[in-house]
């Protein structure tokens, strides 16, 4: 019987996101507090002789080829681990999607990180997380966070990770309006709106690193630089924010480049009640997710 590894890939929200300027490599310098939440994709890895194969379940219109981060993660680790050997190990991957795509929840990056962790076990590589994170950073800016977590500051282009400790209420209501938003478009629109230039970078970074808000300040005054741009493009998000506030949500904010919005609730019952209010009347996708105190991977 072929060896199999099953692994969960959690979503994330950005409790705080500040864009500090343009980088020489074309990315944006950011400072963000990221938090894993209990909405999961599921990945099943089965050892094969040499090939990488990927199948996707749950009806998401995602490619199952080298344009998929999961496929690229498997091939990247395969190449790094077995370079120079006559025969490399392979894998058959089954990805069951629940995290919406292009939603600001980091689903693709989480799937890639979970694939690296799972293959590290499946193939018996025994790579430390730091080594996996270096490889993960070549795949996507958020991948190193998902190899750390569950709460961490992310800086640089998002790939420099400093663990943090979560506090506050234990449940999130996530509301997605069912639209996909391009991360690249949001950052470009934000740069045009504020006139960010590469020359802004050093002074802005130094200023905000020196005055990084405390976790208590963030829980009372959450902030996302990208929210205004996305809300202007999709006015329905403003109505969702107002509704979450009326339902008793705290710390209401857009995650990442959006369009998913989240609100904190201290009790599961109140979070479930708020989610039900959307499910009855609105054509949106809603989840109740626990704020994770430890990484599931």
Automatic annotation (TrEMBL):
<keyword id="KW-0418">Kinase</keyword>
<dbReference type="GO" id="GO:0050515">
    <property type="term" value="F:4-(cytidine 5'-diphospho)-2-C-methyl-D-erythritol kinase activity"/>
</dbReference>
<keyword id="KW-0547">Nucleotide-binding</keyword>
<dbReference type="InterPro" id="IPR036554">
    <property type="entry name" value="GHMP_kinase_C_sf"/>
</dbReference>
<dbReference type="GO" id="GO:0005524">
    <property type="term" value="F:ATP binding"/>
</dbReference>
<feature type="active site">
    <location>
        <position position="12"/>
    </location>
</feature>
<feature type="domain" description="GHMP kinase N-terminal">
    <location>
        <begin position="68"/>
        <end position="149"/>
    </location>
</feature>
<keyword id="KW-0414">Isoprene biosynthesis</keyword>
<dbReference type="GO" id="GO:0016114">
    <property type="term" value="P:terpenoid biosynthetic process"/>
</dbReference>
<comment type="similarity">
    <text>Belongs to the GHMP kinase family. IspE subfamily.</text>
</comment>
<feature type="binding site">
    <location>
        <begin position="100"/>
        <end position="110"/>
    </location>
    <ligand>
        <name>ATP</name>
    </ligand>
</feature>
<dbReference type="GO" id="GO:0019288">
    <property type="term" value="P:isopentenyl diphosphate biosynthetic process, methylerythritol 4-phosphate pathway"/>
</dbReference>
<dbReference type="InterPro" id="IPR006204">
    <property type="entry name" value="GHMP_kinase_N_dom"/>
</dbReference>
<dbReference type="InterPro" id="IPR004424">
    <property type="entry name" value="IspE"/>
</dbReference>
<feature type="domain" description="GHMP kinase C-terminal">
    <location>
        <begin position="223"/>
        <end position="280"/>
    </location>
</feature>
<feature type="active site">
    <location>
        <position position="142"/>
    </location>
</feature>
<protein>
    <recommendedName>
        <fullName>4-diphosphocytidyl-2-C-methyl-D-erythritol kinase</fullName>
        <ecNumber>2.7.1.148</ecNumber>
    </recommendedName>
</protein>
<comment type="pathway">
    <text>Isoprenoid biosynthesis; isopentenyl diphosphate biosynthesis via DXP pathway; isopentenyl diphosphate from 1-deoxy-D-xylulose 5-phosphate: step 3/6.</text>
</comment>
<comment type="function">
    <text>Catalyzes the phosphorylation of the position 2 hydroxy group of 4-diphosphocytidyl-2C-methyl-D-erythritol.</text>
</comment>
<keyword id="KW-0067">ATP-binding</keyword>
<dbReference type="InterPro" id="IPR014721">
    <property type="entry name" value="Ribsml_uS5_D2-typ_fold_subgr"/>
</dbReference>
<dbReference type="Pfam" id="PF08544">
    <property type="entry name" value="GHMP_kinases_C"/>
</dbReference>
<dbReference type="Pfam" id="PF00288">
    <property type="entry name" value="GHMP_kinases_N"/>
</dbReference>
<dbReference type="InterPro" id="IPR020568">
    <property type="entry name" value="Ribosomal_Su5_D2-typ_SF"/>
</dbReference>
<keyword id="KW-0808">Transferase</keyword>
<dbReference type="InterPro" id="IPR013750">
    <property type="entry name" value="GHMP_kinase_C_dom"/>
</dbReference>
């Amino acid at each position: 019987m072929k060896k199999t590894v099953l692994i969960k890939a959690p979503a994330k929200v950005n409790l705080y996101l500040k864009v500090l300027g343009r980088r020489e490599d074309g990315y944006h310098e950011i400072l963000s507090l990221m938090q894993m939440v209990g909405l999961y994709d599921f990945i099943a890895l089965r050892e094969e002789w040499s090939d990488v194969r990927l199948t996707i379940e749950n009806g998401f219109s995602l490619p199952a080829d080298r344009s998929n981060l999961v496929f690229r993660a498997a091939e990247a680790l395969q190449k790094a681990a077995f370079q120079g050997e006559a025969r490399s190990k392979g894998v058959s991957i089954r990805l069951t999607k629940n995290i919406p795509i292009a939603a600001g929840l980091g689903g693709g990056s989480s799937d890639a990180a979970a694939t690296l962790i799972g293959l590290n076990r499946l193939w018996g590589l025994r790579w430390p997380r730091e080594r996996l994170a270096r490889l993960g950073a070549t795949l996507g800016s958020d991948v190193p966070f998902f190899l750390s977590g569950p709460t961490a500051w992310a800086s640089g282009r998002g790939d420099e990770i400093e663990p943090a400790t979560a506090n506050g209420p234990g449940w999130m209501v996530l509301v997605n309006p069912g639209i996909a938003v391009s991360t690249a478009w949001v950052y470009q629109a934000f740069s045009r709106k504020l006139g960010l230039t590469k020359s802004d970078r050093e002074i802005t970074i130094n200023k905000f690193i020196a005055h990084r808000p405390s976790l208590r300040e963030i829980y009372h005054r959450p902030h996302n630089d990208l929210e205004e741009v996305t809300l202007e493009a999709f006015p329905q998000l403003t109505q969702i924010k107002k509704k979450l506030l009326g339902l008793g949500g705290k710390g209401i904010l857009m995650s990442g480049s959006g369009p998913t919005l989240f609100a904190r609730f201290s009790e599961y019952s109140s979070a479930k009640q708020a989610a039900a209010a959307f499910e009855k009347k609105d054509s949106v996708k809603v989840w109740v997710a626990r704020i994770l105190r430890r990484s599931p991977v």
